[in-house]
Amino acid sequence: MTIHLFNAGLFYADGGAMFGAVPRTAWGRRYEADHQNRCVLAMQIGLVATEGRLVLIDTGVGTKHLERLSRSYYAFHQLADPADVLTRLGFTPDDVTDVILTHLHFDHCGGTTRIDDQGRIVPTYPRALVHVSRAQLDACAAPNALEEDSFSTDHIDAIRQAGLLSPIDTPETLIHPLIRLTLHDGHTDGQIAVRIHRPDGRPGVLFPGDVVPTSAHLSPTWISAYDIRPLDS
User: Fold this and answer.
1) Are 17 and 27 within 8 A, CB to CB?
2) 183-195 b/e with 16+ CB inside 10 Å = b?
3) What is the mean pLDDT of residues 101-129?
């Protein structure tokens, strides 16, 4: 098994939103912010290669609306297409067997689809099952007021039409003997955390998504104001 972690791009988020009802004098010692109180965040992508499987964890914001993304409040920049990173690692999008979407907020799932030569939205990884929780599918279909701007059904519609959607219903699911998916409410309903167990017995790897969005959030002192169920967080 080999595990890669790479960055699909950066964006800005307001520090008050990232750390909730806690003054900057407290969280600012743990995470930098600029003069506009903006924190730089990275869209981290996981890639797990093991016998017969190539598993992608999250896909970043994607490449479908680059100009709009760069001009948005979040000012997405230094974007890297995960498909290009795969090529540098010796893989192709056709080699990906599984895509795990921790949740369906646009900065985590946008790269799951692309626009083809005919202007259609199609799967970026045409042979990969896309694992996402049933709770997230429901939330995306009928979002609450806090999350409405974070969801788009375009990605899921294209994946579903291609017959690649794999809904996760149970609190714990093994998609491979060494890859376990667990569901967590708090940031959003049914967010997946990916737990990777190493075959040689070494300590495993946890990919927590936005349950723990930055290392500073390992502290229980503060949580993100983006979390829709803060007491669960």
Assistant:
1) no
2) bbbbbbbbbbbbb
3) 95
